[in-house]
Design brief:
Chain A has 351 residues and is α+β, with helices and mostly antiparallel strands. Chain A has ten helices and seven strands. In chain A, helix 1 runs antiparallel to helix 5, helix 3 runs antiparallel to helix 4 and helix 8 runs antiparallel to helix 10. The longest helix of chain A is centred in the middle third of the chain and has 80 residues. Chain B is α+β, with helices and mostly antiparallel strands. In chain B, strand 5 and strand 6 form a beta hairpin.
Chain lengths: 351, 193
């Protein structure tokens, strides 16, 4: 917490304590305590008593009325006398109350500031450790992704050298060099994936008929994942989206679904309206996402795949794309029977 | 040093004179080994007491007698209120055994006479007792204090349905009390025959 905010909290606490005490003092006595001490008030009340007694003598028929007024006045006089006799004690009590309230409020404010400071410190430490942990994991994954193909390419080159020295046929040499090429291609793919993550472009939003696009996607990619049947539950809505980027999101989701489905299964697309927004639910019949991964499923480099089989960037890229659309990508639910992701579209105006 | 000695000597010489200035009751041995105190009229004439008697509030005199070296004690209570309407003195006396007396007294002279009558305050267990007697003069009664407290806690006499704030009531309740306006202490040796 910044120092200025701490000071503001203390000033507010002090002001609250002052206001509280003022209310107490105002409600309790304020004017009345001093009224009790004014001699002219007492004299006026005493004169009133004398008047009632004189009236009693002048008008005996209304004696009871004068008695009632007299009693009420004398009662007031007595109450003021009692208060006057306790004035110093009462004022001391008020002062003590003031000090106590101030002390309590100041202690609470100080404790609150201290706790906020400690919490901020702790949060900062935790965030730093989280950042370092992410960087460590990234470095580890990068090292592993590069080490595998490099080692394999090195071994293939040694083998190609042996073959050349042995005077092998051109076909054998070409096969060895192809192997080296494959490993280098894997390195190239790894670089491209990182580059695409680093350079996700801004979407060019145009009106897209979502129903039409999904139908087309299902037809185009019907054989892309042989064990996965793509189904569209129908419906339509016009959204503002970058068609190519949206397709990339759907491909990423389907790729993940394909990996999650053991044997054969299906991916279903369903268009829904959520208030003024359009949503597209993508559900699969795969084995679900482990509970330990759910909270971090959109973080980069979070994956269940083995090293060399994927970087764990697909969902991260997909969510970034949907956020750039003014919408979002959320994990709606996951269980051993399947997983559903929801794409929501923003209410942006199309360019 | 010489000056200091002279000052102390003069103070010692004047001590009996100061002691004599304080009103002192007579302690009387009554049948049944009862000790009574006859209070002097000069006590009512003390400036603070005299002023308080005319206020219309109940001036309360509490007499407590303790037997020295034992925990035996006895007490009596006298209440005097000047009725401002009828201009009479309403008095009440409660002695050590709970015997109560109430009177309407028409004049100050008669009040003095009533005041001087012995007040029974202690029952002795032996033929001779050494007592330490205290008299405390309170300016108003518990009921009058409570009435003022309730009135004060209702925002200066304006009655509110819920009886006022509990915080305010608590503050006033602990701040309003009848502090003694005078107090006296006497020693007495009383012998019974």
């Amino acid at each position: 917490m910044s120092r200025s905010r701490s000071i503001a909290v203390l000033v507010l606490a002090f002001a609250a304590a002052t206001l509280l005490f003022w209310l107490v003092l105002h409600e309790m006595s304020g004017l009345w305590l001093d009224v009790a001490l004014r001699p002219e008030v007492r004299q006026a009340l005493e004169r009133s008593l004398e008047d009632q007694k004189r009236l009693r003598a002048l008008d005996p028929a209304h004696r009871d009325d004068y008695r009632r007024h007299f009693d009420a006045t004398s009662k007031l006089l007595h109450r003021l006398d009692v208060i006057r006799m306790n004035r110093e004690q009462m004022l001391r009590r008020f002062e003590l109350t003031l000090v106590t309230i101030f002390a309590i409020v100041a202690a609470i404010a100080a404790m609150s500031v201290w706790m906020r400071y400690r919490r901020a410190q702790s949060l900062e430490r935790r965030q730093y450790l989280d950042r370092v942990a992410v960087l460590q994991e990234t470095a580890r994954r990068h090292a592993h992704e590069m080490k595998g193909p490099l080692t394999a390419a090195g071994l293939e080159l040694e083998r190609a050298g042996d073959i050349v020295r042995r005077g092998a046929s051109e076909a054998e040499i070409a096969a060895a060099l192809d192997s080296v090429g494959d490993e280098l291609e894997q390195l190239s793919r790894f670089t491209r994936q990182n580059a695409s993550f680093a350079a996700i472009g801004s979407p060019v939003l145009r009106e897209v008929s979502l129903g039409e696009m999904i139908e087309e996607f299902c037809a185009t990619f019907a054989n892309a994942w042989p064990s996965v049947a793509l189904r569209f539950s129908g419906g339509d809505a016009v959204v503002c989206a970058d068609r190519d980027m949206l397709r990339q999101v759907l491909v990423n989701l389907c790729t993940n679904s394909h990996r999650a489905i053991e044997g054969s299964g299906e991916v279903t697309f369903a268009i829904a309206r959520r208030g003024t927004r359009v949503a597209l639910d993508v559900s699969d019949t795969g084995g679900g996402i482990a509970e330990s991964l759910r909270a971090r499923v959109f973080d980069p480099y979070v994956t269940t795949r083995k090293m060399g089989e994927g970087m764990g960037l697909g969902l991260s890229i997909s969510r970034k794309i949907m956020l750039d659309h003014g919408g979002d990508l959320q994990l709606l639910g996951t269980s051993p029977d399947g997983t559903t992701f929801r794409l929501t579209f923003g209410e942006n105006e199309c360019s | 040093m010489g000056v200091l000695i002279r000052v102390v000597a003069i103070a010692l010489l004047m001590l009996p004179a100061f002691a004599g200035a304080q009103p002192r009751p007579s302690f009387i041995a009554q049948p049944g080994r009862v000790v009574a105190a006859a209070l002097p009229s000069s006590l009512l004439a003390e400036r603070d007491v005299h002023r308080q008697l005319g206020s219309g509030l109940t001036t309360t005199f509490i007499l407590v007698a303790r037997q020295r070296d034992t925990d035996r004690r006895g007490a009596a209570r006298i209440e005097i209120r000047f009725d401002l309407w009828d201009e009479v003195w309403l008095v009440r006396k409660i002695e050590f055994d709970g015997k109560e007396e109430r009177q309407r007294i028409a004049s100050r002279e008669l009040l003095d006479t009533w005041w001087r009558a012995p007040v029974r305050l202690f029952a002795a267990a032996a033929d001779r007792v050494a007592l330490s007697v205290t008299l405390t003069v309170l300016p108003f009664s518990v009921a009058e204090g409570e009435d003022a407290r309730q009135w004060m806690s209702k925002s200066g006499g304006v009655a509110v349905p819920d009886g006022g704030s509990p915080l305010i009531a608590a503050l006033i309740g602990t701040a309003l009390s009848a502090k003694p306006i005078r107090s006296y202490r006497w020693s007495a040796d009383v012998a019974f025959r």
